[in-house]
């Protein structure tokens, strides 16, 4: 099996003008199914006239020069790696750890090494198999740039039970975030179905059709100077749920480059903050979101486990600065 990237250089003939990009490529790449072609497009492996085009439905034009790079297949089984872990609780069935911001949870295209799964395989030796080859032990996930608590299953019995608790909504997950603005009322619920963004497949959105039911509860802990510290709890667990819901109500998480303020909009928001808060918020390098508390029933002992983790340094600084900032009149 080849371990090298295979490259194809193609030119669109006049008779094919107007066809969808993914359809046209599928007709010419015998080695790829249409879904495989779509993944290549979404992952930026297709260049049209020298520029990446990530919209599968875009029509091709006569004379377009299209370059396709097909990466080599990746190893099926993740490799164990000696990566430090911050474990807060562990027994024979499961462990609860504090995931650092910046760590990817499980291997995927472009991230086959250095993930939480690679570290867990080295630490535990074996994990549950319910989640599949790439996600051993992973009961639930956190985004790469979100820090905080995760429970990991070492055996299939624990994995199935913990998954069932998620399904019954008896596993409680509580987060802390710093957001832009002041949510009103100060405590409440955000609900709205979440699905793929209609024009950007790498993002999620509250959608009118085809989304999955999603509910997020919130409580404001402090609000001053144009920012708020909020505690959030998940009733459902959709991809990017907290970040999408907060963005939908126009109070995105500070530092969220995907769903929050960027460019001139971010500059304007920062300029309106008090000086000390402006400096701290301006130094933020990731979304200010942390999974702080995890509450569930142990699958084997039946005892209630509640684990809480301290805020990481970057979030703790912004929370303290927000709490000390003058309130807006």
Describe this structure in words.
The chain is α+β, with helices and mostly antiparallel strands and 329 residues long. The protein has 3 domains: 65 residues, RNA-binding S4 domain (Structural Genomics Hypothetical 15.5 Kd Protein In mrcA-pckA Intergenic Region, Chain A, Roll); 95 residues, 2-Layer Sandwich (Pseudouridine synthase); 159 residues, Pseudouridine synthase (2-Layer Sandwich). 23% of the residues lie in helices and 26% in strands. Strands 5, 6, 7, 8, 9, 12, 13, 14 and 15 form a 9-stranded mixed beta sheet that branches. A 4-stranded antiparallel beta sheet has the order 1-4-2-3. A hairpin with a 2-residue loop joins strand 2 and strand 3.
